[in-house]
Amino acid sequence: MTTPAQQPSDGAVLLDELHATLTKFVILPSPQAIDAVVLWIAATHAQPAWAHAPRLVIRAPEKRCGKSRLLDIVEGTCHEPFLTVNASPSAVYRSISDDPPTMLVDEADTIFGPDAGTNEEVRGLLNAGHQRNRPAKRYDAASGRVESIPTFAMAALAGIGAMPDTIEDRAVIVRMRRRAPGETVAPYRHRRDRPHLTALAKRLAAWLRASMPDLERAEPDMPLEDRAADTWEPLIIVADHAGGDWPTRARNAAVDLLAEAADNDQGSLRTRLLVDCRTAFGDHPTLSTTELLRQLNSDPEAPWPTYGKTGLNAAKLSKLLAEFDIRSANVRFPDGTQAKGYQRAHFFDAWTRYCPDAPHDRPEGVPSQPSQASHRRSERDGLTLWDGISRPNDEPDPDLWDGTSPVPPAPVAVPA
């Protein structure tokens, strides 16, 4: 893919300086991860120009991997950092305006983990705030009216382990790791070092705020599609605006980090079930429900043996597969017997759509479904250009899932 051929600008110099500052205090897992964090920080200074607010997920397998230190650097260099620690949900919501702050969440298990407690409001905001015009609705008893509270804001979340799919699917993901012997960084001292960070933040803001209409109109060539393209678009616009080698570096980071996320992602529970069913079927055209459950529950490394007190059962299996329009029926087997079971052919469409690495063994004569062309951003989001006063205002989506229930609302069923 071709990238804009630009001369380095003052913006490229600023990004290089931010890159040097970041690597002074933190060791990140790859050059692409460093570039991604640099571009994400810069993008926070032009949030009114973006159609989507990418999340930055900083995750680590254990403590002492540098995630909190990285969050310190992000806090010093991003646009109007808002730390959510000890902040009430109402304070968080009321802090978001047409020019939102940057939400920073350390120890994100307090928001998404088993001990999340009363943080459902903040969790809903983080799930909804990736896209414009997804306000939270609240009833104001004093005025007797329903209020629309903005949720759109970029957010950085640091924690141990994976974040929920609703967050990581909308995020630039950086996997931190503990420093190896011989890897050293400079100690960070808040009083001594933060003034330099905030001065750099002011320069980034001055550079980007001077070009807000250009940033809003930009429609860059994207190496990604769909939601990944929405997430990375602000970062790549910033890189193109900076020039130099940043356009190429940004696109390389997008492709590499997305591939890394795909390699490490086991997918949702339903997607895992499709993959495991594909393994269980092998070359068999049919399997009884009893035999399919036996194979699923016999894998000690799969989630099915502990899916309930006695493992996955027929009712739970049926409910999970029904989302893909896969249902059991009376099946006749080669020996002439009949039993409730599943036909392999009924899985082909779901395997093709949700397990892209599945063997291409669809029934003969059934073509694969072509991908739909991606629309231009302005057409896709229906947004008008930012006028410097207020954000565009589309109709809100009434069916947002707030992340508090175990699964999102089921889609309207369509004929198989």
Distance between the termini: 38 Å
- Helical stretch tally: 16
* Uncertain stretches of 5 or more adjacent residues: 362-416
Radius of gyration: 24 Å
Order of helices and strands: HHEHEHEHHEEEHEHHHHHEHHEEHH
Helix content: 40-55%
Q: Which of globular, elongated, flat, extended, rod-shaped describes the shape?
A: elongated
Oligomer description: single chain
Strand-residue proportion = 5-15%
The mean pLDDT is: 81
Class from secondary-structure proportions: alpha/beta
User: Major β-sheet, in short?
Assistant: 5 strands, parallel
* Beta strands, count: 10
Concise structural overview:
The chain has 416 residues and is an alpha/beta fold.
Could you explain how this protein is built, in words?
- By secondary structure, the chain is an alpha/beta fold.
- The chain is 40% helix and 11% strand.
- The protein contains 16 helices and 10 strands.
- The strands form 3 sheets. A 5-stranded parallel β-sheet has the order 2-3-6-1-7. It has a 3-stranded antiparallel β-sheet with strand order 8-10-9.
- Helix 1 (10-25) packs across helix 2 (31-43) and helix 2 crosses helix 11 (246-264).
- It starts with 9 loop residues before the first helix and ends in a 35-residue tail after the last helix.
- Residues 362-416 have low confidence and may be disordered.
